[in-house]
From TrEMBL:
Protein's cellular compartments: Cytoplasm
Record Pfam families: Mur_ligase_C, Mur_ligase_M, MurD-like_N
Origin species: Streptococcus pantholopis
Underlying gene: murD
Protein name per the record: UDP-N-acetylmuramoylalanine--D-glutamate ligase
Catalytic reactions of this protein: UDP-N-acetyl-alpha-D-muramoyl-L-alanine + D-glutamate + ATP = UDP-N-acetyl-alpha-D-muramoyl-L-alanyl-D-glutamate + ADP + phosphate + H(+)
Pathway: Cell wall biogenesis; peptidoglycan biosynthesis
Length: 454
């Protein structure tokens, strides 16, 4: 870690804890800053705040008092989930206090080069693929950011020959001032998080911050399946490396069943260990990052052929009596479920779907679910999904929860079929988050496996 002095004896406010805030507070304290932490959760219920107080860091919990900002802070480090229209953030900006997120801190002290990955879909899968390939190829790729550990924690021990592979959200990238990855990757840009950003243009601009300080010696990997990416390619100082499943590009591409990089065959497309056209995009993006990092084709193929997905993201669990199970609980919208279904033969698929009712119909899903063997519906949105299933000519069963849905699906399955949890809905009507929902699916699969082996 670089022992920078720019925060020494400076008053810094860390707004919001969670893992990233806790890591930022500790890093700032180590760099000599005079740190105050402000978190909304009451102190008695806040182990992170209690731990920081024991280490001599000032903590104010239970509310966000605006007059706290009268204490002459020179910097505010905010949790990325806290919006810019939050009264504390608004007041700080009015007072001329710079506002950053903890990935900016991590960049400032990192000895390791950074590969930064952002986008609307596929970030976690692509980030994990890249780290796996780097490690298979003899380099140390360290997961950080939205997956793994907070970036400002990881950088404290990362060495100069390591590579930080950082998944970055639009929320994190809005809070960067000098952040400069050597390789940056945007998987795709789709309308999402508009409730936070206000407009798609503002959301895309936040993502585009990833390349703001990059130059010709840096590499920006873009998805040339999207016209928007081609337009953005004209607006960067970085060297653009495209990837595409739809045509030959001067980067990574799919041609005649092979994945190529700049004219060199890397591996067969059907050797990638996870299904779906979107995962070929993710694999091509990962190949570009790996080749730019000097990784051999043999290590790339070895890693991608063994890759079985990230938990809750089209994760292959295994099979019971030759019925395969895929956990795609992270598919909380229609597009994600469409992408999941694209990798399979519908006639062998039993789809478990449903969740929070946001008032939308599912007509755009109809072409994608045509020919499904069966659908098992859960949650508030089940009646709306039933209407789509009727239009597609697919028979449905209702289940009270995911465990019950798995039992119904397995009873309807025959050898060679697969059961796919890809809900097309958020989980909050029944489960705390998509992870809890996916964990219940995994538990139900494990119970079936145990019974079948009994």
């Amino acid at each position: 870690m670089k022992k920078i002095r720019q925060f020494a004896n400076k008053k810094v406010l860390v707004l919001g804890l969670a893992r990233s805030g806790e890591a930022a507070a500790r890093l700032l304290a180590e760099l000599g800053a005079i740190v105050t932490v402000n978190d909304g959760k009451a102190f008695a219920e806040n182990p992170a705040a209690q731990s920081l107080l024991e280490e001599g860091i000032k903590v104010i919990c239970g509310s966000h008092p605006l007059d706290l900002l009268d204490e002459n802070f020179e910097l505010l480090v905010k949790n990325p989930g806290i919006r810019y229209d939050n009264p504390m953030v608004v007041r700080a900006l009015e007072k001329g206090i710079p506002v950053i997120t903890e990935v900016e801190l991590a960049y400032l002290v990192s000895e390791a080069a950074i590969i930064g990955i952002t986008g609307s879909n596929g970030k976690t899968t692509t980030t994990t693929m890249i780290a796996d390939i780097l490690n298979a190829g003899g380099k140390k790729g360290i997961l950080a950011g939205n997956i793994g550990f907070p970036a400002s924690e990881v950088v404290r021990t990362a060495k100069s020959d390591d590579l930080l592979v950082m998944e970055l959200s639009s929320f994190q990238l809005m809070g960067t001032k000098a952040f400069h990855p050597h390789i940056a990757l945007i998987t795709n840009l789709l309308p999402t998080h508009i409730d936070y950003h206000g407009t798609f243009a503002d959301y895309a601009a936040a993502k585009w911050n990833i390349q703001k300080h990059m130059g010709p010696s840096d590499f920006l990997i873009l998805n040339f399946n999207q016209d928007l990416a081609k337009e953005h390619a004209e607006k960067t100082q970085a060297t653009v490396v495209p990837f595409s499943t739809k045509g030959k590009v001067d980067g990574a591409y799919l041609e005649n069943g092979m994945l190529y990089f700049k004219g060199e065959a890397v591996m067969p497309a059907d050797a990638v260990g996870v299904p779906g056209s979107h995962n070929l995009e993710n694999a091509l993006a990962a190949i570009a990052a790996a080749k730019l990092s000097g990784i051999a084709n043999s290590a790339i193929e070895q890693s991608l052929s063994r890759f079985r997905g990230v938990k809750h993201r089209l994760q292959f669990l295994g099979d019971v009596n030759n019925v395969k199970f895929y956990n795609d609980s992270k598919s909380t919208n229609i597009l994600a479920t469409q992408k999941a279904l694209s990798g399979f033969d519908n006639s062998r698929v039993i789809l478990i779907a449903g969740g929070l009712d946001r008032g939308n119909e599912f007509d755009e899903l109809v072409p994608d679910i045509e020919g499904l063997k069966k659908m098992i519906l859960v949650g508030e949105s089940a009646p709306r999904l039933k209407r789509a299933a009727d239009k597609a000519g697919v028979s449905c069963l209702d289940a009270e929860d995911i465990r019950a849905a798995v039992k119904l699906a397995f009873a309807a399955a025959e050898p060679g079929d697969l059961i796919l949890l890809s809900p097309a809905n958020a989980s909050w009507d029944m489960y705390q988050n998509f992870e809890v929902r996916g964990d219940e699916f995994i538990a139900a699969f494990n119970a079936l496996k145990e019974t079948s082996h009994g």
